[in-house]
Design brief:
Number of helices of chain B: 3
Strand content of chain A: over 45%
Largest sheet of chain A: 4 strands, antiparallel
Shape of chain A: elongated
Distance between the termini of chain A: 24 Å
Helix content of chain A: under 10%
Largest interface: A-B, 35 and 36 residues
Number of strands of chain B: 9
Order of helices and strands of chain B: HHHEEEEEEEEE
Radius of gyration of chain B: 18 Å
Strand content of chain B: 35-45%
Structural class of chain A: mainly beta
Order of helices and strands of chain A: EEEEEEE
Oligomer: heterodimer
Distance between the termini of chain B: 67 Å
Helix content of chain B: 10-25%
Structural class of chain B: alpha+beta
Number of strands of chain A: 7
Radius of gyration of chain A: 15 Å
Shape of chain B: globular
Number of helices of chain A: 0
Chain lengths: ~100, ~150
């Protein structure tokens, strides 16, 4: 899973875009007429220097290629920011970067 | 003696209370360890989804703002930004009231600074509702989004 991430210490903003099909299980395949199985990220976690600041759960109602942005207090340049995700089929992805 | 029995009764009483509070969704056990909240995410009615996350009693608040486009041409990608000036935010949930399963996201937050954005799918024109828990209290606000092409398949 590709996960571009941007972290700005100035305003404490963390932004990430996760490449993922994010199927909710309600869509039908146009050719076969069969439902496309649900496949979505159900867990997203963000930690700064090892401390969890966001622990999220998602449904398949999040858009394809999920985007998340949020602000945290007290971020400093050089802080290590780690984002990790897990989907309902057990696939995982993570990315780590420094705040700048 | 009596005192030991009292202590035991007290302990049993509070343990019982705690269990029912957890069952009612009022307290979430250690979220880092918690499994995906399937009861809440599979609820098909808004009231059931709110009850499952313990948010039935949320107070409508002007300190919670749900920012979305007024009209979404494509219901598959609707940006939702939650902005709040409330201090000590502990968690935020996002629900699409008319989606087949309304609960879309819930976040437990630490050191939160007032802004969170997620892109969601909307099946049809619907209110998008945010529930914010701050300082142990629940606040809510909603914004209607008109959808011209739904984004939930079917």
């Amino acid at each position: 899973m590709a996960i571009p991430i941007k972290v700005r210490a100035g305003n404490g903003e963390i932004k990430a875009l996760i490449s993922h099909p994010t199927e909710n299980g309600l869509r039908k395949d146009a050719k076969s007429g069969q439902f496309i199985p649900a496949h979505f990220i159900n867990s997203v976690m963000v930690a700064i220097n090892g401390k969890t600041v966001l622990d999220g759960q998602w449904s398949g109602g999040v858009s394809k290629d999920p985007f998340i942005a949020f602000r945290v207090k007290g971020m400093k340049a050089g802080d290590r920011v780690n984002l990790s995700v897990k989907d309902n089929m057990g696939d995982t992805g993570s990315v780590e970067t420094s705040a700048s | 003696m009596n005192s030991a029995r009292r202590l035991l009764l007290k302990a049993a009483g509070s343990a019982g209370l705690l269990t029912s509070a957890v069952a009612a969704g009022l307290l979430k056990p250690g979220r880092a360890l918690a499994d995906w909240d399937s009861a809440a995410f599979s609820a098909t009615r808004l009231t059931d989804a709110l009850a499952a996350i313990g948010a039935s009693g949320a107070t409508t608040s002007l300190d919670v703002v749900v920012k979305t486009p007024d009209i979404a041409e494509n219901g598959a990608v609707v940006p939702v930004e939650i902005v709040t000036t409330l201090p000590n935010v502990e968690s935020i949930a996002i629900l699409a009231e008319k989606n087949p399963t309304p609960l879309i996201a819930q976040y437990t937050l630490t050191d939160f600074d007032g802004m969170l954005t997620t892109r969601i799918k909307l099946r049809e024109t619907s209110k998008v509702r945010a529930i914010v828990r701050a300082g142990g209290k629940l606040y809510t606000s909603a914004k209607e989004v008109k959808v011209t092409i739904g984004g939930c398949g079917g």
